[in-house]
């Protein structure tokens, strides 16, 4: 028998979005759980199984919501995923989307969750080519402000920036010292900027731009 669960799993992304957005924007977790939850009258009895099928769509919809709503929805949905492997997969997908949208608030929120090997998940995003919309590869002469935020984020969470970032993209525009400074590594910075005056100027510049 073709169930309602199968029907929802087969609908298009646009149709699912039209159904989800009003309920998520209303912060109406009750409606979601009533349809997909564990109540006796729920249309879909196994919420975890449904989430496995629909998580990519739900996550992408959530990340387009107003910022005061999406984190609450992400947290509520993740509470229904019990297996560590599924949680980690969901977290990886959310990290990927958060990176692509430069959603630093989502990245910080994910790092605060106790969901396993956060550092391992972050490592794959230490490559600038994993930062969609980044200006590193398209406009090296004028780095995008988001790039500085990403550098600071990875430095804060002890994820070393990759050799490709420090030795190629940043070096080509003379910003390698800025990376070293963000990482607190003045010794390496001085190898490239010999003059103490240059160091003072760079520190002033970083302070001025809020880096």
Descriptive key words:
about 210 residues, mainly alpha, 13 helices, 2 domains, elongated, about 0% strand
Question: How does this structure look, described?
Answer:
It is built from 13 helices and no strands. Helix 2 crosses helix 4, helix 4 runs parallel beside helix 6 and helix 11 packs antiparallel against helix 12. 22% of the residues are buried. By secondary structure, it is mainly α. The longest helix is centred in the middle third of the chain and has 17 residues. The protein has 2 domains: 123 residues; 86 residues, no CATH class. The chain is 64% helix and 0% strand. About 19% of the residues have low confidence. The chain starts with a helix and ends with a helix. The protein is elongated.
Rg over CA atoms: 21 Å
Order of helices and strands: HHHHHHHHHHHHH
How many domains, in number, for the residues?
A: 2
Low-confidence stretches: 34-45, 133-143, 162-173, 195-199
- Major sheet summary line: none
> What overall form do the CA principal axes indicate?
elongated
The counted number of beta strands is 0
Beta-strand content bin = under 5%
Count of helical segments?
A: 13
Fraction of helical residues: 55-70%
| N-to-C span | 59 Å
